[in-house]
Amino acid sequence: AGVLRGPKTRFATLRPFPALQPGLGSADPPKGCLMPSIVTDQNLRKAYAGGFEALKGVSLDIEECEILALLGPNGAGKTTLISTICGITVPTSGSITVGGHDTQTSFRAARDLIGLVPQEINLEPFETVFNTVRFSRGLFGKPRNDAYVEDILKQLSLDDKKDSTIMMLSGGMKRRVLIAKALSHEPRVLFLDEPTAGVDVELRKDMWEVVARLKASGVTIILTTHYIEEAEAIADRVGVINKGEILLVQDKADLMAQMGQKQLQIALSDAISEIPNTLNSYALERSDDGLHLTYSYDTTGERTGITTLLNDLQASGLQMKDIQTKQSSLEDIFVGLVKEQA
């Protein structure tokens, strides 16, 4: 028990552990977690010889034992940021600390705290699962501990595959092996770069459960993803990166509350060519076919204005066929942020 925890350390204060969605692990607090940041980037820049800037002054604090989802379109800088923190890419300027260790002056100490699961599945096809994970542990100078390796495989539902060769595994199982490799040296921070890319919906949800269990054991998780529902399902905080810049990092619930809007969608019995002037104050949007009106309102406001709108719609002679509400999703917020920067 507890093999996925980091080094034994005495902590004065435990970080509150947010409740997980049903089926996504334990709601008990992870042991050995503090509020202070375990990873800190300050004004991180990465420029290439041709002049392209992949990172433009990125500053980011990652709290211990949280799940941070990093969202961004292709080419936004997600993989470059992870690679730079992990020491694969050398930054042009700026500083990175992991667990208090500077990645430039104390690289080995910082890297020992990090596990990385890359996008690409690059495994020796003829080696067994057990030997693959055990070998990774040895690369970090850790003493042989077969019981620890077996426990990792069990927690990742790979124990019945430990003697199978990699080439005999499905794509989802291979990704679990990558996670086991990344955990083999007992890291405190785990980076998952597109962990569910190319995985079907059922296996993707299984992977979410794996991530939630890792968090419950005290591991800090940072994942990049193109799947908005992934961030909505398991993340504590959401970061949005585009064109090498961090646009936002915020608690998921606060983000939804502050930026999310509700929309009242009104279906009309007859199409209209334009919105009556008497309804201009509501900033309604008319659909192209003229059969629908959309009214956006702030859910945190004292008054939504819906009652008055419905009365004014009736007074203007418009006949309503149907009414429904829609909550803005994290995807809507993400698309809006990226469009603002374009």
Please give a structural write-up.
This protein is of the alpha/beta class and 342 residues long. Helices cover 29% and strands 25% of the residues. Strands 6-7-8-3-9-10 form a 6-stranded mixed sheet, with helices on both faces. Strand 9 (237-242) and strand 10 form a beta hairpin.
List descriptors.
342 residues, alpha/beta, 4-stranded antiparallel β-sheet, 10 helices, elongated, disordered N terminus
Helix/strand order, N-terminal first:
EEEHEEHEHHHEHEHEEHEEEHEH
- Most strands sheet: 6 strands, mixed
The beta-strand count equals 14
Strand arrangement, major sheet? 6-7-8-3-9-10
Estimate the mean pLDDT confidence.
84
Stretches with pLDDT under 50, minimum 5 residues: 1-29
List the total number of helices: 10
| Class computed from helices, strands and strand pairing | alpha/beta
What proportion of the residues form beta strands (DSSP E)?
25-35%
Oligomeric organization of the protein chains: single chain
Percentage of residues assigned to helices: 25-40%
Compact description:
The protein has 342 residues and is of the alpha/beta class. Helix content is 29%, strand content 25%.
Q: What are the SSEs and their pairings?
A:
Blueprint: E1 37-47, E2 53-63, E3 67-71, H1 78-85, E4 93-98, E5 101-102, H2 107-111, E6 114-117, H3 129-139, H4 146-155, H5 171-183, E7 189-193, H6 201-216, E8 220-225, H7 228-234, E9 237-242, E10 245-251, H8 252-259, E11 262-268, E12 285-286, E13 292-297, H9 306-315, E14 320-327, H10 330-341
Parallel strand pairs: 3-8, 3-9, 6-7, 7-8
Antiparallel strand pairs: 1-2, 1-4, 4-5, 9-10, 11-13, 11-14, 12-13
Helix pairs in contact: 3-5
